[in-house]
Poly(A) polymerase (Candidatus Desulfobia pelagia), 445 residues
Amino acid sequence: MGTQKKTSSSSEASEAPVIILQEDHLISPQRIDRDALKVLSRLQDAGHTAYLVGGGVRDLYMDKEPKDFDISTSARPGELRKLFRNSRTIGRRFRLVQIFFPGNHIIEVSTFRCRSEYDLEGTDKLLQSNNTFGSQVDDAFRRDLTINALMYDIKDGSILDYTGGVEDLKSRLIRIIGDPDRRITRDPVRMLRAVRHAARSDFSIEEQTWKAIQKHRAKLNLCPVSRIRDELLKDLRGGASRKWVELALDSGLFGELFPFYNDLLLKGKDNLKYRQELVAALAVADRLHEKGNCIPEYMLIGLLLLPWAMYTFPVLANSTDQNRGDAYAMSLTIRKKLDINLLHLNLKKETREQIAGLLSHIPLFASNDGGTWPNWLSKKSYFKERSHFYMMYREAGGGKPVKALIVPRTSAKPKLKKKRGSSGGGRNPVFSRKEQKGGVFGFKR
Ligand code: ATP
Ligand code: MG
């Protein structure tokens, strides 16, 4: 058979890899990005060990198109910089080398990293700076999920599996590598990553991993807000936000991300109805994403807030004669609520204004929805974004599908000059506790 050594699929996997030979999997070099192949061969020719790793191998194994092709190597950042002149070193949490190719194409290469977090005593410590290098085995075990820890060798087309990832891919299981309690405590963002990949691939979450997520969900609040926001947007844009929201709700992660929603979605007597509405709103995003549309951040968050807005401001769903003045007044009221409810996400003021604008103008568009839009409305600077949002709202409620999304990524308003120290840079650790010390791997010192 294809595997050269048997191992358990559990996180107690052995340190010797299972090797899956070329003839026993679907990955062929033709499906690997040409620039990534160039990097891999140059590294190997220079005497280094180098593998294709992470999501690229996972996706190719499942016969999917990878989003990116990451490389892990024994070469140190300095050696990489010498080998690839057109490169730069990036990363605060850990150093990566980006190699530039024509057409703005970038290949990211990381040096094998150590397993320092496994040596920390106790289950309550956050992970310290992780720029210490390690062996390729260490590099596999320091990764988040078993399915993300496979290494593909271009020399002979084999896959090296140290953590039982291939078995988990076959069983369609998401499993955190090692002791999930510890691994989540070291980096709580791994909970979001586990839920994301379960949603995206339609995999189940392995029991110990699932229990650990439920147990440690509140630890999300220790992560820097920029990381949480980035992860959230990836989930909303990934094309599986519908499945994501269900898992996020069931695991309790959604309640940590949007506590103001808890009464409505978890406790309220109509919680199932609101949950269905939320799923329906995100289904519109998934459908549009599938068709290649890129929905801007403010619209995605607007969609996510629809059931809450309809509940909190019943006039949004019921009013049939909203005029422009009413819509403006409503946008200010909604803005005030958003300033409180979304404070922890550290969204730009402009984004919060845009979201309030989208939600507040639903009745205005509903009352003018008669096949063609009146001239005065279609001339408004906000027309494109708000009419599209209204149509998404209409689709979520069972109406006609939105054809295509042609909306500006930012508002029509000119950009305000940013004040020094203002939010929006995403560096503000709103989620981390002031007294939290140490830790660079996603945690603020
Ligand atoms: P995508 O298809 O979204 O790119 P991905 O798994 O490749 O999925 P990346 O964010 O590109 O996600 O990360 C690349 C790899 O780095 C992952 O596959 C995983 O092995 C590792 N990784 C990412 N985040 C973490 C983390 N928080 N802890 C441990 N390993 C991580
Ligand atoms: Mg990736």
